[in-house]
Amino acid sequence: MISRVLSAELAEHAGQRVTIAGWVHRRRRLKSVSFLVVRDRSGLAQVVAPGAVPGEETVVQVTGVATANPQAPGGVELTEPEIEVLAEPTEAPPFDLYRPVVPAALPTILDHAPVALRHPRLRAPLEISAASVAGFRRALDRLGFTEIHTPKIVASATESGANVFGIDYFGRPAYLAQSPQFYKQAMVGVFERVYEVGPVFRAEPHDTVRHLAQYTSLDAELGFVRDHRDVMAVLREAVAGMLEVVRGQPAIDLLGVALPEVPAEIPAIHFTQAQRLTGEFEPDLSPEQERWLSEWAVREHGSEFLFVTGYPMAKRPFYTHPDPLRPGYSNGFDLLFRGLELVTGGQRLHRHQDYLDALAARGEDAGPYEGYLRAFAHGMPPHGGFALGLERWTARLVGAANIRQATLFPRDLHRLSP
Ligand code: AMO
């Protein structure tokens, strides 16, 4: 490795001759002196040089004396520099990366993602996303969960046939996994408590600000639950754990983001109550209803999170456990956050015969699910789980209007590259 200090550590080395390395973020030439701002993974450092200096996005290594200057970023700058060019760009960036406000529209940013994401404000949501995943893992590790990695090439659809990508698998039909649903359930039979952070695929025919064709699903599944409320309690811990790690991130300050509080118990309302409150009685909640309910939860409970429980069985997948006390309704829930469905989860069926009956009642052939159902033939405890959409979470957290602002190389109806 090139032996260097990070720009964020420069103040600790005041008075010493040190080496930094990174990209020329900004170059300013005055009459007798040039200012060079070098960007590395930790932030920005200023270099004062007597003569000409390399242009923006040149990769440099600079050795100089760390000298106190209250006007420099971090209060320290490098003087008496020796500048070595490690790589020279052959193309100019699509816009100035040093302007604090991004001077480009989303399609330009996405078309030029490899360089555009170098802008500190555009990189920040992805840093928050990484911190969220670290917090998710830490929270579930503490609760005795095992991380698993399930196949993404699968033999059957899980969440309904409509939005699944079909592929040719050595001459046989196969699909890109819409969810690790079946595998995470089966692994409850092995580990009791599992989670997965991985890509899932949805052939979404809609061009919306909240749907992607590939997104990152934070999944969990646990056994020996009494009902869906035990799953909701674990989800609460997972979300609180994500925020714990996010809270310390410089990206939060950079974006000026207000983080939500997670109430000790997140408020929950039944689906029928949600219908009554909004005065709409469709079998599923519309995006407008979700927005209204979120505002209601802030007004009534001071919470930016709201559980809606007891969705109608007809609107949930066949693996959903019915509410034993309310025919037609399920032990399935959604978690709304800042006006949007962030999580879907619930208690599942766990007896083999219940699965056969549920498929028959829906007029579905059990054949394609044989591999999945085998786990239940060997004894499965009452269990449940959830899946949280990472990009939706990050977008809501940073106040991005479009999910693509919180997605690395988004895939959608129109976008397959970069
Ligand atoms: P569901 O299909 O509701 O549930 O997905 C779970 C969560 O994933 C996110 N999400 C999406 N994010 C971006 N683009 C999309 N096209 C998209 N579709 C869904 C949402 C959503 O709440 N197997 C169940 C989960 C479970 O019960 O464990 C499932 O996948 O944030």
From TrEMBL:
**Compartments, as annotated in UniProt:** Cytoplasm
Q: Residue ranges of region Aspartate?
A: 181-184
Q: Is Acetylation among this UniProt entry's keywords?
A: no
Q: What is its EC number?
A: 6.1.1.23
> Positions of the site: Important for tRNA non-discrimination?
73
Q: Where is the Aminoacyl-transfer RNA synthetases class-II family profile domain?
A: 136-418
Q: What class of enzyme is it?
A: ligase
Catalysed reaction, written as an equation:
tRNA(Asx) + L-aspartate + ATP = L-aspartyl-tRNA(Asx) + AMP + diphosphate
Binding site residues for L-aspartate: 159, 202, 344, 348
Q: Name one GO molecular function term.
A: aspartate-tRNA(Asn) ligase activity
Q: Where do the annotations place ATP binding? A: 202-204, 210-212, 341, 389-392
The family database entries (InterPro entries) matched by this protein are listed as:
Aa-tRNA-synt_II, aa-tRNA-synth_II, Asp-tRNA_synthase_2, NA-bd_OB_tRNA
Protein keywords: Aminoacyl-tRNA synthetase, ATP-binding, Cytoplasm, Ligase, Nucleotide-binding, Protein biosynthesis
Quote the PANTHER family the UniProt record gives. ASPARTATE--TRNA LIGASE, CYTOPLASMIC, ASPARTYL-TRNA SYNTHETASE
Q: What does this protein do?
A: Aspartyl-tRNA synthetase with relaxed tRNA specificity since it is able to aspartylate not only its cognate tRNA(Asp) but also tRNA(Asn). Reaction proceeds in two steps: L-aspartate is first activated by ATP to form Asp-AMP and then transferred to the acceptor end of tRNA(Asp/Asn).
Family to which the UniProt record says this protein belongs: Belongs to the class-II aminoacyl-tRNA synthetase family. Type 2 subfamily.
User: Could you describe the subunit structure of this protein?
Assistant: Homodimer.
Question: What name does this protein carry?
Answer: Aspartate--tRNA(Asp/Asn) ligase
